[in-house]
Amino acid sequence: MLEEDLEIAVKVVIVGNGAVGKSSMIQRYCKGIFTKDYKKTIGVDFLEKQLNINEDDVRLMLWDTAGQEEFDSLTKSYYRGAQACVLVFSTTDRDSFEAVEKWKSKIEEEVGPNIPIALVQNKIDLLDNAVVEQNEAEGLAKRLKLRFYRTSVKEDLNVEEVFKYLALKHIEKMRKEN
Ligand code: GDP
């Protein structure tokens, strides 16, 4: 097989409580759009994004929960074969922050302990309404040993960085395993 035929495809799952901005993040990253009343696309399992990391072509498949945020209603098939994960909470939703540890355990239980996870505090454009302090979020990320990002999907802040990090992590992991 020719070198250029090689392509790395990565299944990325995005978890976290409802309304923290998961669908918006996928739409922003894959389509470059942000809408306030984004309606969940029914029947579409994932959106794709192609990126190039140090000469490697990586195709990220971003799976949306399609409104199944109720913790236990996410199906096994959502997690099956996941290779990277974005765990999102919102600056303006305390419950979503308190649920982070539970989400992390859930992912690791469903997928295994070695999946790269990025912890994301979204909606940092709404700092005036913040109910989570930056240092406590950083403290949690440190304790849970997760890479931490602060994003605004609305203002397009740091979204690309989250996915670049996960793509890179995935490639590193693949190289180690081979
Ligand atoms: P999901 O349920 O986690 O998929 O959340 P959605 O993507 O449906 O977003 C919930 C609401 O938050 C929508 O009204 C979005 O427009 C809004 N939203 C998402 N990200 C941001 C952000 O970074 N800043 C602000 N101000 N609103 C956001």
TrEMBL record:
It is found in: Cell membrane; Cytoplasmic vesicle membrane; Cytoplasmic vesicle, Autophagosome; Cytoplasmic vesicle, Phagosome membrane. It is an enzyme of class 3 (hydrolase). It catalyses: GTP + H2O = GDP + phosphate + H(+). Keywords: Cell membrane, Cytoplasm, Cytoplasmic vesicle, Developmental protein, Endosome, GTP-binding, Hydrolase, Lipoprotein, Magnesium, Membrane, Metal-binding, Methylation, Nucleotide-binding, Phosphoprotein, Prenylation, Protein transport, Transport. GO terms for molecular function: G protein activity; GTP binding; metal ion binding. GO terms for biological process: anatomical structure morphogenesis; protein transport; system development. It is a lipid-anchor. The keyword Oxidoreductase does not apply. One of its GO terms (cellular component) is autophagosome. Interacts with SUFU. Belongs to the small GTPase superfamily. Rab family. This is Ras-related protein Rab-23. It comes from Ciona savignyi (Pacific transparent sea squirt).
